[in-house]
Design brief:
Belongs to the cyclophilin-type PPIase family. PPIL3 subfamily. It contains two helices and 13 strands; from the N terminus they run βββββαββββββαββ. By secondary structure, it is mainly β.
Amino acid sequence: MLCCKNRIAVLLSAASARFLFLSERRAGTLRCCQPRQMSVTLHTTHGDIKIEVFCEAVPKTAENFLALCASNYYDNCLFHRNIKGFMVQTGDPSGTGKNGQSIWGKPFPDEIRSTLKFNARGIVAMANSGPDTNKSQFFITYAKQPHLDGKYTIFGKVIDGADSTLDAIERVPVNNKNRPLTEIRLTHVTIHANPIADAQLRG
């Protein structure tokens, strides 16, 4: 696991906008997700994708995603599945699409919200293998996908790069298993703001 189940200490560096997550064995509670906007940039081999993360709406999913980003878990991950007109998927360090782990070391529950829909290009959601099986993999849609509503946890949307980087990624040829014939990698992630930077720890 990337951090223990009991407590996560979060230190924000204003200069670099990166986070150091420290674990402690002592019992404690992290009060997080103050309602404020935050975003991250996915730096890929085909350009940048800036994403707004819905921390207030889906706090557990946002916490998992932010912690994975901050720990460099996603660095150099392949986009292993690419379906034109549908979506592109990443988040498995093995590059196979069969692995990946949450910060808790086990799958975590869905956070389905009726107000969050697959109603546009650039919706960001957790990939899963069934209800309540979220780990680290996620996908970004290329178009509206209403048939996915209620089945996958939406935790963000693309706010920059939908017409440039996503276009470039969508055009990459794939094999008969929708695996890109040329590598598309998520090289690293920049965190621009974190709503749990002011979180108070009790313990």
